[in-house]
Design brief:
four-stranded antiparallel β-sheet; alpha+beta; 282 residues
Length: 282
Amino acid sequence: MKIRFVAVLSLFLIALLCFGLSLRAQAAPAQQQFATNTALPDGRILYTVQAGDTCGRIQLLYGISLQQLRELNENINSDCTNLIPGQNLLIALSGPAGPSATPGPSPTLPPPTTTPTPFAGTTEICVLLYDDLNGNALREATEPAVAGGAISVAETSGKYSKTLQTAINPDPNAYQGVCFTDVPEGNYNIGVAIPDNYNPTTNLTYTLDVKAGDRAEVSFGAQSRDTGVAAPSGGGPSGGGTSPILGFFGAILLLGGIGLGWYALRLRGPQSKLKRSGLAKR
């Protein structure tokens, strides 16, 4: 009986010892990182990233916001997923340490200051001066660009103004117009000066509103005087060219008038003869 009691007591002590060891293992993990506000000589407070660390854990350790953590460490991405064990993170800047530091309360970080950045979005305005071969004031795929002209783009309030010359791009697949880049958004007056040997087929001015990030395209038509199609349809100054269509209709009208005159003379001849014969009988 005594031996049985000793055996039971031994098993109880062994179980109690194992239970105490398990509690100790749970209460004291092998790796534990505590926050520290001890500044380096240059005033920086650093934290070394541990395995399994997240930005949320570091925020709780030091009582800072995610915005402050990202402002002090530009290498942290927007999702805070690129933390690497062993990486040093800047937690605060308290200024260079003095010659004799007096222990005191932990420094309180000032609230972050945010400087608003003005929106600097720009747009692009592309203008094409094309040879309106058929004079219909519409850009056709076969109508080429016109070189030797000038394009002016001016913002109505005067904050932007620029003039570029038109030219023909040797690459037929490239855009043949003139592009004004880095143009601030606003209301613009676009004007075109055509070469001397051309007549306009569209209005040569246009008003355009553009927003940041947009790309606007405007086309103006002009026709070479050697082509000889009708006068401009957009109200611009008329040229001295003649239209072959008008000349054709004019020739038809002229021939019709000659034919009617000849027919009238043929009718008048017999009537005169009848009148003379009637007088002779009297």
